Amino acid sequence: MDVEIKRDGLILRGLLETPGTDKYDIAILMHGFTGDLGYRKTDLLAQVVQRLHEDGIATIRFDFNGHGKSDGRFQDMTILNEISDGNAILTFTRKLPHIRNIFLIGHSQGGVVASMLAGNYPEYISKLVLLAPAATLKDDALKGDLQGVTYQPNHIPDALPTQKGQIVGGFYLRTAQTMPIYEVAKQYKGPVCLIHGDADTVVDKKASERYQEVYENSELHIVVGGSHQFKGAARPQALQLVTDFLKY
């Protein structure tokens, strides 16, 4: 079913899909930079959802502000307000009936958001899955590099066009430089599954390796030949790792 959640005057739009059982676990899925909740059947998150449904796990996924069908300008999007989006979705999910456990699944920038949300709400998150989490975005911001578009890190522009033509706001870049990603993430002590491709050219696998160092209860899986979206033969491997981790 379609879901609309208000957050600071914006409407976040998403999809809630539940099994026909009295009690169930639910996974909140968070997409990456410039992405969406997964409207195409070939999308990574859409396929994760399909696999989870086969195992009787409910899902809720949504477009972050400035993305997909949600309100807001992409130029106003930051990691900070995406965490606020995630907080609103988590609050909504916690109030749903029939819920046993809540899982968080984040891909790329959504992985950063999920990791920090779990660090802020460790008592509500039963398990955490990070797919190619883009924690290197802080290092890139400090260097003045946004996915191949360079800028002066000490003289950040008010707006910066990406290679795909979107406009990123200067506040996104400024806050990225000081984001305490790992410091907040490590406050989560529950089980974590880290999945990263060794052929990822968008986010280096060192991001997941660093997460593995700071977490107390994590497992790291490096998928051979895996791209940032885990395309081709890497996709079934990634999907199996996610479902196995949440199922058992």
Automatic annotation (TrEMBL):
Q: Which InterPro entries match?
A: AB_hydrolase_1, AB_hydrolase_Est10, AB_hydrolase_fold, Hydrolase_4
Q: Which residues form a coiled coil?
A: none
* Residue ranges of domain Serine aminopeptidase S33 in the record: 42-140
Which GO molecular function, any one, fits this protein according to its record? Answer: carboxylic ester hydrolase activity
Q: Which Pfam families match?
A: Hydrolase_4
Recorded hits in SUPFAM superfamilies, A to Z, give: alpha/beta-Hydrolases
The answer on whether this UniProt entry bears the keyword Hydrolase reads yes
What keywords were assigned to this record?
Hydrolase
- Supply the PANTHER family for this chain: ESTERASE ESTD
This chain belongs to the protein called: Alpha/beta fold hydrolase
Organism of derivation: Pediococcus parvulus
